[in-house]
Amino acid sequence: MLTRQWHKSSYSGHEGACVEARLDATSVEVRDTKDKSGPTLSVGFAEWHRLIADLRTDRM
């Protein structure tokens, strides 16, 4: 479950090629763990839920 704290993907390996996500007031933010001060991608809740559903059913 996402919170306002950054969470690393459970599928991330130990080599640092990871993504992190967190809740914002109106969206979900995603960033590269290797560049924590770099840009983030912000997507709406509906789009986030569609992405997760697609990933879980391997539709991507």
From TrEMBL:
Domain of life: Bacteria
Pfam families: DUF397
Residue ranges constituting the DUF397 domain according to the UniProt record: 5-56
Name recorded for this polypeptide: DUF397 domain-containing protein
UniProt organism field: Phytomonospora endophytica
Lineage: Bacteria, Bacillati, Actinomycetota, Actinomycetes, Micromonosporales
